[in-house]
Amino acid sequence: MKWLLAGASGFLGQALRVRLASEGHEVTRLVRRKPATSTEFGWDPDRGEIDPAALDGVEAVVNFGGVGVFNAPWTEQRREGILSSRVRTTQTVAEAIAARPEGQRPVLIQGSGIARYGIVANPEPFTEDDLAAADFLAQVTVQWEGAARAATEAGARTVFLRTSPVMDRSGGAFAPMKLAWSAGLGAIIGTGEQHMPMISLDDFLGVVQWAADTPHAAGPYNLTLPVPTTNAEFTDELARQLHRPRVLKVPAAVLRTTLGELSGQVLGDIYAVPERLQADGYRFYYPDVSATVAAALRREPAA
After folding, report:
1. Helices 289-297 & 231-242, crossing angle to 10 degrees?
2. How far apart are CA 263 and CA 266, in angstroms?
3. pTM for the full predicted model
4. How do residues 18-37 score in pLDDT, each as one tens digit?
5. Which comes out higher in pLDDT, residue 268 or 139?
């Protein structure tokens, strides 16, 4: 299969590129600089421009474009960057797909976020049918997914990955967590009772490939554990597998003082399940927190 990746230089994009190449797929990618190889194609999403040859023969387009959410304070300028970087990349890709002749439109596998459901505790888990919350990140996901309208209206199969933090020692949120715990500095956050969505890297990559290969896969999917976990359960499991004591606790007030508005994403409760993903036939390699932590600490991928 021939793939085209947008956002291929990030943690998830790099992992997907390596996995696909190792399995013999043809992988090309979009770059903002001048292309340096035959597997790179230029684009400028700020101007809505993309090399039309980038889509020739492509069967699956994956878009993970967007600036980081948690690596800088949410100033007004940063908020605009978080939103616009996602909307513009998605619009550009979707319009390029829509412009292809009928029968030559690849599946669009589009990034999104589990933050869509907000950070307020809910007695029942959120599923893909639930409405978006009103907070900033939730509304970002609404506009992010909406930006793919050109592709969906053109009849291109479109899959939205409402992704949780992806756990793996090679990068993402898990790498600094492992470092802190290995140094004896791991801690429960706040009360620890808040639900903490997550997914293993192997399952994240597995869902991407499943979405490309499964003709009936379309619409939104929650990428999170089918067996939900809490912050306390996660930290206790990480402590157990790293053979470190879990004695520290970071009070909510301290996080609010140090992180400001971002603290809500750390202290908030996101209780969601992958209802459609399981109903449509995806089977998780690592369905619970124990298996996910173990997978994140290993180097070898799932068989």
Report:
1. 40
2. 5
3. 0.92
4. 999 999 999 999 999 999 99
5. 139
Cβ contact 245:182 at 8 Å:
no
Long-range interactions of 48-56: CB distance < 8 A, separation 24+: 48/88, 48/91, 48/92, 48/95, 49/92, 50/92, 50/93, 50/96, 52/96, 52/99, 54/4, 54/28, 54/30, 54/96, 55/4, 55/96, 55/97, 55/100, 55/104, 55/106
Name the CATH superfamily for 2-166+197-225+270-285. Answer: NAD(P)-binding Rossmann-like Domain (3.40.50.720)
**Among candidates 194, 207, 198, which has minimal Cα distance to 172?**
198
Query: How confident is the model over 197-247, as pLDDT tens digits?
Result: 999 999 999 999 999 999 999 999 999 999 999 999 998 898 889 887 765
Say which residues have a Cβ less than 8 Å from residue 240's Cβ, sequence separation at least 6. none
Asked if 204 and 277 touch (Cβ cutoff 8 Å), the reply is no
